[in-house]
Amino acid sequence: MKKRSIVPYGPQHPVLPEPIHLDLVIEDEKIVEAIPSIGFVHRGLESLVQKRDFNQMVYVAERVCGICSFGHGFGYCEAVEKIMGVEVPGRAKYLRTIWFELSRLHSHLLWLGLLADGFGFENLFYQCWRIREKVLDVLELTTGGRVIFSVNKIGGVLKDVDEDMLAAVKDMLDKIELELKPIVKTFREEKTVRSRLDGVGVLTKQQAHDLGCAGPFARASGIKSDMRKMGYAAYGELDFDIITSDVGDSYARCDVRIGELFQSISIIRQAIEKLPTGDIAVPVKGNPDGEAFIRIEQPRGEAVYYVKGTGTPFINRMRVRTPTFANLAGLCETLKGADYADVGLLILTIDPCISCTER
Amino acid sequence: MAVMKFIPTALKNLFSKPVTTGYPFEPAVFPERARGHISIEIDSCIGWGMCVKACPLGALTVDKLKGTWEINRFDCVVCGYCVEKCPKKCLSVQTGYQTPGADKQKALYTKSPEVLKAEEEKRKEIVRKAAEAKKAKENGEK
């Protein structure tokens, strides 16, 4: 038997955007096993939820994470609305869909940039983030925040969008669609990029299924699962397909996310086209009494929200199962047999969001 | 699969203008809705403390008698919930960020002396009227 050694990886590492710690058991340069440990940014959301009333909690929920912020606020609102039997107006549903897809766009562009940075392509990294900046500008124009929007409330949304803003969104989409072409071409066709991604960290469909992976990570392994198809918000009325790949390697994950970029652009265009007129919120009376379980598709995968109210202004229990938590098991599987040099890249391919995971 | 696919983009960027704003030499431009900081028209404030109860961070303090409104800018995340809850709409979200400071001082806003004096007189008037009403009631009972 070859000599085995354990190398600690993270929580502070140049390639990691967020603190996750892995104990890597290695033989020469090959990983035999990876043991993850998290808990460096735990903030105690489950206790906090009992000390803030259910309206204030919207603002706390969306600050669980800086990148998936809209999804968290949205998931929490959906859950409380389900408990209270509130029917959100059509315009609010469409606005939520538009903002959700814009946040998916900026999240995926951020990830593409980080991936490029992960394999050492600095210029490509900045190109991705330059395009992302345009999405952030539009988000700031329509909501007032660049990454934390604070537009959700129980019963609808807080801010309406006028024609000029919608024109700005459409204009931005046209521009970034053009600008994305050379970037996407580089990811898909450039030999230096493909040599780092092809065949690295393969996860088969069976493994992805058994380990309960979620989101683009699972879709890249051929699992056709997208919570948007369940039809929450306005997704039921919009036309889109689930993007999957059968390969399951790092390139497939990159390819699926690139496909989802263009899919998001198409969904936003459809939503703007169909945006109904009317109220953006309905008044909500009383306190939540009961429990609800909501599944939504975050940029990183399926997120689950469980909220339980007891008829007081304070929520009794709130549980968030985030996609990164589901994907950690899959990550450890992909790391087995990988080269030590690919570890950083492989961690990035699950699009880790540790702040979400630890809440 | 090809090589050097990125060269045209890289060259194009080399000869184009920077996409970033040359702050601080150029002023930062914010859209109208940008949530920069919370501001108050202190003289319209009635000191009910709805904002204090609403604030998820506990960054606000109100003293009705002294006519003060205090915000800890380091705690405030500019979520705008206090603005939504304010009954007199004297709170608002403004664009532009606060200037950085060396010490963690709270920002204290006090009502102007004229407004404070007027409020004091109003309070005295109410107390006087209440006392008169009580007296009248007692006399009536007798």
General description of the model:
The complex is a heterodimer of chains A (359) and B (142). With 359 residues, chain A is of the alpha+beta class. Chain A has a single domain, classed as Cytochrome-c3 Hydrogenase, chain B, CATH 1.10.645.10. Helices cover 48% and strands 14% of the residues of chain A. Chain A has a 3-stranded antiparallel beta sheet. In chain A, a hairpin with a 4-residue loop joins strand 7 and strand 8. In chain A, helix 4 (90-118) packs antiparallel against helix 10 (250-274), helix 5 runs antiparallel to helix 6 (163-189) and helix 6 runs antiparallel to helix 10 (250-274). Chain B has 4 helices and 5 strands. In chain B, strands 2-3-5 form a 3-stranded antiparallel beta sheet, with no helix packed on it. In chain B, strands 1-4 form a two-stranded antiparallel ribbon. Chain B is of the alpha+beta class. Chain B is 33% helix and 14% strand. Chain B has a single domain, classed as 2-Layer Sandwich (Alpha-Beta Plaits). Chain B has helices spanning 7-14, 50-54, 81-85, 113-141, and strands at residues 37-40, 60-63, 68-71, 91-94, 107-110.
- Gross morphology of chain A is globular
What's the number of structural domains of chain B?
Answer: 1
Task: Give the chain pair forming the largest contact, with residue counts.
Answer: A-B, 32 and 23 residues
Give me the strand/helix succession of chain B: HEHEEHEEH
Number of helices of chain B: 4
> What is the annotated CATH architecture of chain A?
Orthogonal Bundle
Q: Uncertain regions of chain A: pLDDT < 50 for 5+ in a row?
A: none
Could you tell me the radius of gyration of chain A in angstroms?
Answer: 20 Å
**How many beta-strand runs of chain B?**
5
CATH topology of chain A: Cytochrome-c3 Hydrogenase, chain B
| Structural class category of chain B | alpha+beta
The side-by-side strand order for the widest beta sheet of chain A comes to: 1-2-3
Low-confidence stretches of chain B: none
Please estimate the helix content of chain B. Answer: 25-40%
User: Which CATH class of chain B is shown?
Assistant: Alpha Beta
Mean pLDDT of chain A: 87
CATH architecture of chain B: 2-Layer Sandwich
Tally of contiguous helical segments of chain A: 13
Number of domains of chain A: 1
What is the assigned CATH homologous superfamily of chain A?
A: Cytochrome-c3 Hydrogenase, chain B
Please report the distance between the alpha carbons of the first and last residues of chain A: 41 Å
